[in-house]
Amino acid sequence: MEIVESLYEIPVQDPEEEEFSSADLNWVKFGNLEHHDDVALIPYDRVDAFILGECSNVECPTRFHIERGRKRSLGSLKDFKDDEYLEYRLYWCSFGPENYGEGGGILPSRRYRLNTRNRAARPQSMRGCTCNFVVKRLYARPSLALLIYHERRHVNKSGFVCHGPLDRDAIGPGAKKIPYICNEIQQRTMSMIYLGIPEENVLEKHIEGIQRYCGSDAKVNSLASQYVHKLGMIIKRSTHELDLDDQASIRMWVERNKKSIFFYQDSSETDSFILGIQTEWQLQQMIRFGHRNLIAADSTFGIKRLKYPFCTLLVFDSRQHALPVAWVITRSFAKADVSKWMKSLLDRARSVEPGLKISGFLIDDAAAEIDPIRDVFGCPVLFSLWRVRRSWHRNIVKRCSSIEVQREILKRLGTLVYNIWGGIGSLSGALEELTQDFVDQTAFMEYFKGRWIPKIEMWLSAMKTLPLASQEASGAIEAYHVKLKVKLFDDSHLGALQRVDWLVHKLTTELHSSYWLDRYADECDSFQSVKEEYIASTSWHRALQIPDSAVTLDDNDRLFAKVLSQKDSSISHLVWNPGSEFAFCDCAWSMQGNLCKHILKVNMICDSKQGHQPSLSFQSFNDILMHLWQKPMDDSVGLDQSMAWTYQMLDQIQKLVELNGSKDIGTLVNNLPTRWVSKKSRTHVGKPSSTAALPSNSNGTRTAAARKKNRKRKRLSRLR
């Protein structure tokens, strides 16, 4: 086949099929006589269709994952070739590149293998497959993608077919008649077992999954039944205690699960214990939902009951539900330690997606270190009120018996926050008045004086200085927090709360499996009961199901609102202090301190009606805009700064609108301004540096002579 040296000689191919594979394309040799690859040019927006077509290969059905990725910004290259990339991604078959068989390079199913005593760890998933290809988004033509196939066959390093129906040397007797179980099917089966779904239902779904690879067969069903039963027994018999000593057990777990750890620091006299956990699936979700989006932190969970509290980093998925993408187990909140694990987390994500950019970081603790967030992620920091509201609400209900007193105290605390945020009155005067008015509520006032008065100024300062998050985001974080408590603080596990290995085991098995299955059910439209429960897991989504006609506002005094129950029309719930983040509802869910759907629904309606006070988050947003637009008293540099910030924000919003509304990304990229960069000076041997033209002094001559002498001595020592 003739070798092509210019991409402009290669035609662009756009198959008519919705999904197409490498068999539908004409491949061309591109390069030179010494090095050339099989390449094809397709429109960049058809890359996903090509990947789906490759995954549906009848002979070797599989999935492809991104093994490596790089990215450049347009204008970063002054001189470039026609095959330079704007985006570069290496896709690898999910049955590789690692080989988890015995002996590594040789599979345990081969006739000649190493006599190792250890069995294969996961023989069905990682088979050492070498099939991989590269997708280059061209720098010169961003609307096109260059496909480079390095290895089209699904074979291992020995050249044998390593998965799929054509692998005749598969593991176990009769295994060649069925395909291997891919990661997705295995993870789905494990998730169902961890969540306690009956084995009959697990087996049914498992067989449905493997029928994607082959037809229905009695032998297939029998082997699938054995697989599910054995996997269930392994999971039930597995234990978190790898060693009687908790610290030694954690070290062993870290050694066995290096791919799920982004930072580890063992405890010593100088260093604190820090364990950062992020599975490969969580990394994918962080890149998918965290890029140019928000990341939130549910900080200091279990600070009283667990040996080590932990922080959860969350992203908001396609339904704006909080999805955990990393767990950090530590008692240290020092700035240096926080910077360490944050840098490691971001470096790991950018090793897969170099252009990852976080738009904002939500915190819920006023004592949290903000500087590391700004330094590492380079994004604004927002503050969520959910932890303050939940703590006050729970303790008011717990320590005050009268419901009238409960709603009045919560309303007064909300008014205090609103007034201090708006600069009305003084904090000391408001606290003194609150203490005098509710002096008879000794249980709550003792709690409030002991826990909140010493630090309330710090919390109010954080509310005033940082932008405030919305109630939808706060409700999503709270929903995750509630689910976490249900999963971890089960009565049967109370004896293990002081072991870190138990905590790690619970997070990486049950909790991880729960969220994996939720996302799978929603995206694949399966497990309808799981999907419905997942969609309704936040109060915000439950509030959207309440019609506006079910809400009646008190238009006279605006003291309360009435919400009719959707299950029983004879029942109604009263929401006091409507329109405020500190509203009070008499439903059972709200009486547990949670943000209920009735409060959110009433607040939604109040936001659309005039005369009601807007929420704190909306007031915070307005305050930021007014601060940007505020003209200084004199015509000073402050006016220029305000104008520059406003124009910068407006320009970014306009570009985002253009990007979302554009159908052809190529035309949008071509309209971007050219970025000029300075040419870097060469520093390799053979090129004189710019300082060589300067007049040299005697010291410089002596130094150069000494260097030559040292090089001569090194060469002589090598010859000896």
TrEMBL record:
Q: Which UniProt keywords apply?
A: Metal-binding, Zinc, Zinc-finger
Q: List, alphabetically, the InterPro entries matched.
A: Znf_SWIM (IPR007527)
- Could you tell me where the Basic residues compositional bias lies? 705-720
Give a single Pfam family match.
SWIM
Q: GO molecular function terms here? A: zinc ion binding
Query: What are the boundaries of the region Disordered?
Result: 679-720
Biased region (Polar residues) positions are 688-700
Could you tell me which residue ranges the SWIM-type domain spans? 570-607
Please indicate which superkingdom the organism of origin belongs to. Answer: Eukaryota
* Name the UniProt record assigns to this protein: Uncharacterized protein LOC107430484 isoform X1
Q: Which organism is it from?
A: Ziziphus jujuba
Which gene specifies this protein's sequence? LOC107430484
